[in-house]
Write a structure and sequence with these properties.
Strand order of the largest sheet: 8-9-10-11-12-7-13-14
Oligomer: single chain
CATH architecture: 3-Layer(aba) Sandwich
Largest sheet: 8 strands, mixed
Structural class: alpha+beta
CATH topology: Aminopeptidase
Number of helices: 6
CATH class: Alpha Beta
Number of domains: 1
Length: 243
């Protein structure tokens, strides 16, 4: 049974995704959360990093829309099929999340590239923060890694949650030198394949924000469903199909 340690509603602040917009999160620190409880939270638009669960409460906007891929009907686009072919030589491994020098170095290279290309704020993620956000002990926590064995290097890392009914993509970072391979797309395709093999109906991709280049791509995976509103835990969740 989940135990609530802290509950915060953020004061409005500048939005990280949309210029001239404000943002606010409902943030809850929870421990002892079962996979069934995670399932119910994600079904209602929550996300997880470590022991922190959050979802937007920016009432004037509503651009952060929770999106999930319908696994049974998924049909890759031509560009997605190209990404699968381009990354077929990479070794993909699924396991428990860990922190080490290779992951920290890869994350820093990737984030520095985003800072230079998209004006992101500098990252303060060190080993302790990485451990808290990505490797916090949790029954749902998974890690997907991509290796280029020919170059003897780690080139991509995905942080994933797994419940009985879904796989949820929480975060993905990769070597900027491999950007042309569309590793982010390959990561989602791999999760869809995993979900299909395990009989899970959905892959959750988090929030689609059409005005944000880093998040708008999610609706290219279809068909998909989007969550209607922000239901409370005592309310049923309604999803609307798109594509």
């Amino acid at each position: 049974m989940a135990r609530l340690l802290q509950h915060i509603i953020e004061d409005p602040r500048p939005c990280s995704y949309l210029p001239d917009a404000s943002a606010s999160l409902d943030v809850r620190v929870l421990v002892d959360v079962s996979p069934q409880e995670v399932d119910a939270l994600f079904e209602r638009g929550w996300r997880r990093f470590g022991a922190v669960y959050f979802r937007p409460v920016c009432a004037p906007c509503g651009e952060c829309v929770t999106l999930r891929v319908v696994v049974s009907d998924f049909a890759p686009t031509k560009s997605q099929r190209r990404a699968a072919k381009a990354t077929a030589h990479l070794r993909r491994v699924v396991g428990r999340p860990i922190v080490d020098d290779a992951r920290l170095a890869l994350y820093r290279r990737w984030h520095q590239n985003r800072e230079d290309a998209r004006g992101w704020e500098a990252s303060v993620l060190d080993a302790d923060r990485y451990r808290n956000d990505f490797t916090f002990p949790h029954p749902c926590a998974r890690e997907v890694t991509f290796y280029d064995d020919a170059a003897n290097k780690l080139v991509g890392v995905g942080i994933v949650d797994e419940t009985a009914r879904m796989l949820s993509a929480a975060y993905f970072y990769y070597d900027p030198d491999y950007a042309k391979l569309s590793l982010g797309t390959a990561n989602v395709l791999g999760l869809v394949a995993d979900a299909k093999q395990k009989g899970k109906p959905h892959v959750y991709l988090g929030y689609r924000v059409r005005g944000c280049a880093s998040l708008a791509y999610k609706e290219t995976f279809g068909p998909h469903e989007v969550l209607v509103g922000r239901p409370e835990m005592t309310e049923p969740a309604t999803w609307r199909r798109e594509g």
